[in-house]
Hints:
Blueprint (H helix, E strand, L loop, with lengths): L1 H16 L8 E5 L2 E9 L6 E11 L5 E6 L5 E8 L1 H10 L2 H4 L12
Amino acid sequence: MRTAMRIAQSQLEKMLAAHEPTAGMYVRVHGKNLIMGRREPLGPDGQIENDDRVRLTRLNASTYGLSVKRHTGRWERTPFSGSMEEMVQVISTFMQHLVAPLPGCIRTYET
Length: 111
């Protein structure tokens, strides 16, 4: 499963880069989850930190479920599931307000 998730991570990174609202997001693997977020100045003194935003959970070989990170730090499932391509489309259209860079943080930070 580890190799399959690394391949999925690479595919997802390419898909995110192709859409303006999601360009510059990082993707990390955690078990069967692909967690997407931005590196932005969040900590004291504007330290750059990971800010997880959305998560795809692998349901089977070709289907993912979409969750969003709540202000409490917990993940909340959404009613969306489908192929990785479909989930990226949902994220870049219906959820672009969740994945957009914070105001004043437009530039992309390297990981």
